[in-house]
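The protein record passed on for reference:
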Amino acid sequence: MKVKDLDNTELQYFYGTYLNTLEKEEDLKSALLNGKKNFQELVEHLTDEQFLFSYGEGKWTVAEVLVHLIDSERVFQYRAFRISRNDKTALPGFEQDDYVLESLANKRTKEDILDEYLTVRDASINLFNVMSNDLLKRTGTASGLAWSVAALGLVISGHQRHHFNILKERYLA
């Protein structure tokens, strides 16, 4: 499933910001695999100073951004799993700032965060790899919005790319 195959309304939500970071021809599996490689390269090249850097008062550190990506991927992955299993329950949103406060990201090591990320991303890759096109087209409700399973998978990659762009512009420039 490619970004161009999504229902146009899915690109108009707030999460369209993330989907729009992806190429229209980019497919879900490639996006997840490329994101894995990019995350690993970024973390491996971070200095300890960069890892704990924040560009302003009240802004997240690089470590917190990385853990936020992991937390969000888990949430999107869970939503995709539930919807793919034809669960019609409306799924709640989550408050990202509260999650970051509780993450203890700044007390963790780069290696620990990378290890957790690789585990979560591999689970996402495995989840979406076994889905048929019919499952990827299934829709459900999360955070008060209609989602397809494919859109949730692509948002995982687009969300990461969005934050990587911010890291490059404001943290690592």
